[in-house]
Specification:
The protein is of the alpha+beta class. It has a single domain, classed as GTP Cyclohydrolase I, domain 2, CATH 3.30.1130.10. The protein contains three helices and six strands; from the N terminus they run H-E-E-E-E-H-H-E-E. The strands form two sheets. It has a four-stranded antiparallel β-sheet, with helices on one face. It has a two-stranded antiparallel ribbon with strand order 1-4. A hairpin with a 6-residue loop joins strand 2 (31-41) and strand 3. The mean pLDDT is 94.
């Protein structure tokens, strides 16, 4: 069975628990949050995916509240979503919640079938000068 558009879009628009925030008190510093127990499900095979998600961000007016972020991550446990989509969704949801000056999300996924994947996404998104193939 081939991968379909439905596989590719799986999980992207899923409603997840709200990431709550609290007022930031200081300017110009970076926060790093590491979740070593990330799990989700491959949208095609249904096999579990595991990894470490690292969020780096420079807060502006708000900081991410960790308990709500933990609940947000737990919602991925049974969600069918590709690594690339998960990282970009996490970045988008963190940015929407706390509106940071800058943010980067990195997913380092455990080896399966001899392959190890690392996916990163940043805000603001870099502008692309790449021409289409």
């Amino acid at each position: 069975m081939d991968y379909t558009a439905a596989h590719a879009q799986s999980g992207i628009k899923s409603k997840l628990p709200k990431i709550e925030v609290w007022p930031n008190q200081f300017p110009n510093y970076e926060i790093t949050i590491v979740n070593t127990e990330y799990t989700s499900v491959c949208p095609k095979t249904g096999l579990p995916d595991h990894g470490t998600i690292t969020i780096h961000y420079v807060p502006h007016k708000h900081c991410v509240e960790l308990k709500s972020l933990r609940e947000y991550f737990l919602a991925y446990r049974n969600l069918g979503i590709f690594y690339e989509n998960a990282i970009n969704k996490i970045l988008g949801d963190v940015v929407a919640a706390c509106k940071p000056r800058r943010a980067r999300v990195r997913g380092e996924f455990t080896t399966r079938g001899g392959m190890h994947s690392i996916v990163e996404a940043s805000f603001p998104r870099p502008t692309s000068t790449r021409k289409p193939l």
